[in-house]
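DM from R.C. (forwarded with permission)

"hey, sorry to bug you on a friday — could you get me a structure for this? deadline for the figure draft is monday and I only need the backbone to look sensible"
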Amino acid sequence: MPSHVHLRLDSWECPVATTLILALIAFLYVRGWLDLRASAPKVVPARRAGGVLLGLLLIWVAIASPLGSCDSGSLTVHMVQHLLLMTFAPPLIFLGDPFRVLRHGLPHRLGAVVLAPLFPWSALPRLGSALAEPVVCWVAATATLVGWHVPAFFTLALQSHAWHAIEHASFLGTGLLFWWPVIHPWPSASTGPRWSTVLYLYLATLPCDILSGFLVFSDRIVYSVYLSTPGSTRLSVLDDQQCAGALMWTCVTIVYLVAGTILSAHLLTTPSPAPLPPAGPRRLEIA
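My reply, with the result:
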């Protein structure tokens, strides 16, 4: 990481609103998990509940910690934020069945009087099934990844607080959308893992590989905005660019490979359903 990035830590101010929102979600999740555990202890194991809290912490680290104030001076820091929001936090959160647990964590009056009329529970499975459409999720995540790394849009996000917030929100939103068809959290109805999901993960690595490979092997500076950072040189900015590309290449490949391996192992060890007997008239046997 470039040495001038450390200067940004002195001016870091904790975003109170973001921190409180994430802390409230964590509190409601723990409250709901304890309530659900009293009646169904094995529905959400403790390790998965801990994964949700870790995912929320990673979101805070990406957008509200001192790390979040350093992305204007380093592409590597920006890439760490992107990976935390799109690749690491969403699967950790979804594996903990967040929506079902949060439903138990909400105050009863709030859920019955305010949320139930706006979001009827009977309509949630249909919404979950609509969100689980792989093509939509893949296109949304890929468009977000490629779009925000176009130099013009990248520079716009660095120079505008509003667009910077929109960039982070889109990373997190499409990251959650991308992992939805893989994990199928409630309220979507999972039919079990399929080989198409493994292909889905493989195809998702392609745009990441192309972008990261371009950053690693390019001999020119893609984002010249970093040249205006105090203390930066052409060599340091180019090294930072190559480091960011290598980090993205490695992390995305490992995470998607692990997810694909787990799904493949489950598919290979799950017995196929027995074929149904052919339909037709049944013979009556008389002893």
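R.C.: lifesaver. The chain has one domain: 12-269.
me: no worries. Confidence is low (pLDDT under 50) at residues 279-287.
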